[in-house]
Write a structure and sequence with these properties.
β5 (61-67) and β6 form a beta hairpin. By secondary structure, the chain is an alpha+beta fold. The chain has 2 helices and 6 strands; from the N terminus they run ββααββββ. It has helices spanning 14-22, 27-36, and strands spanning 2-3, 8-12, 38-43, 46-51, 61-67, 71-77. Strands 1-2-6-5-4-3 form a 6-stranded mixed sheet. It is globular. Helix content is 23%, strand content 39%. It has a single domain (2-77), classed as YaeB-like fold, CATH 3.30.2310.
């Protein structure tokens, strides 16, 4: 996978792959969240990328990632709430 937003490859950890399966998400949906979702800085190259999808009942969907030389997806969350 490749992010057009960051022009970087996207790498999924094993943990992220497991959470994708648990949350009924595929790689295309994860990439959509990365490329078109809201971005919140979590510090030190760590970010939350999140998006509301009207067709799903488990919103917000969130991708926790480290963005440096690649977008490394650490985990995938649902029912996420951004902190102020």
């Amino acid at each position: 996978m490749h992010s057009t937003r960051f022009d970087l490859p996207v790498v999924l950890t094993e943990h992220a792959r497991l959470r994708m399966a648990e949350r009924d998400m595929n790689a295309a949906l994860v990439l959509e969240i990365i490329d078109t979702g809201n971005l919140k800085d979590a510090g030190n190259a760590h970010y939350w990328l999140y998006k509301y999808l009207p067709a799903r009942t488990d919103n917000l969907l969130c991708v926790a990632a480290v963005i440096e030389n690649a977008v490394v997806v650490k985990t995938i969350m649902h029912h996420w709430e951004p902190l102020p």
